[in-house]
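Predict both folds.
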Amino acid sequence: MSDTAPLVSAGISSATSDSKTAFDWRGLVLPIAFVIVWYAVTALELVNTKLIVPPAGVAAQGLKELANGSFYLGIGLSLWRDLSGFTLGALAGIAVGALIGVSHLADKVIGPTFHTARQISLFAWLPLLSALVGTGELSKIIFISFSAFYPVVLGTLEGVRGVSRAHAEVARVYGFTPAQVFFRLILPAASPEILAGLRLGLIYAWLATIGAEYLLVNDGQGIGNIVFKGRMAFNVELILFGLLAIGLVGNVFNRIAAVAERRLLRWRAPAR
């Protein structure tokens, strides 16, 4: 069993858990209970309300931000960074994962370097990136592309290696060229694992987007900068609103990816 199996299995299990399209109201039980407890402990002043602010204060801060046009500009910039970095990382990840998966030589030449590099924490690359290309858009997009690259490579690699070699041999007997074997047999058969890797890559890219905006601050624009500005001003309401906005946008991304994954796999037979 490859060491990539847990990663891909986690992605597939996550996709399976979202198989129902209907909204399940039970998912609101915990947030509502949390808000009730939060309101109670602040209303009764059981905590320091300068640090644990009341929910009403966060709601008021949120309405103030929503009425400000710069909030929507920040979301737009964050989405642009996220999707740009994810696209670059995903395309490179599929190419590298497929190459390592189908070529024994590439596995021996590229594999050790890749598996060593992926042990390095993503945030450890930030000082080098900022030194080489500064703290502008380019460094943010490169960082985000790194975050998407690794899970996509692992998913693609697992999917390609899982394709039955007997099927490939039968295809060659029928006169398929190597390109036809790859695009008409290997790539479709590996698509569930590739899509699982893409979905994980999308999640990691969003986390990296927020991290890049928080740690590579230059123009102050982006949803991650909301938390940074709240920290600098010691505005706990703004910090909590920023965290809520980040979580909601990330959840929307995850749901969109789950729906896209299900629809893209409808054509596929149950067994490979």
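Second protein follows, with its predicted structure tokens after the sequence.
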Amino acid sequence: MPPLPSTVDWRQKGAVTLVKDQGQYGCSSAFSAVATTEGIHALTTGKLITLSEQELVDCDTKGVDQGCEGGLIDDAFKFIIQNHGLDTEANYPYEGVDGTSNANEASQHVASIMGMRMSLPTLRRYCKRLWPINQFRLPLMPVALTFNFTRMVFSLAHVELSYGVTAVGYGVSDGGTEYWLVKNSWGTVWVEEGYLRLQRGVDSEEGLSGIAVQASYPIV
């Protein structure tokens, strides 16, 4: 296996859509699942398409996921698989409220996935998910993450996971600090135009605020 590069930024590879804004609602799992699906679709087809979070909010409500009240990224992936894909954001735009599933729009599948996988909570293994093994195996990125947002800066202890984001790369700051490049869904006014650099390489397999505990990604 070739050595890992020192930095990866999937925005530069055309695999990351613009930062979105979920507003005050608790549907971060939908935004994270959609962001990773957008990424893997772009990497496999060469077409970056902005997909619909509202479709998940409206239609993925039969299990743990409950629209604007929150849910699990893995269950969102399962819905996308069972639904045979998602429609575009343009056709099924985000409204920030729980609605009734639009059967016509939900039947429009412009991007689909075949399955999903969980990454083990080991930072080295997790890091490898951010980079292609060889030129014939497409990179499994971006990666959906769940972590404890309220303790994101200063906690290394065991945490309960509570918020979904998307890792779109990693790197090293000018000061020498290793970090994960994380895409959030609170608009471009948040932190670094909607992104956060969260320290990596800490002395914990969970990662800072549990970011490496429950990483998952779709497969096509």
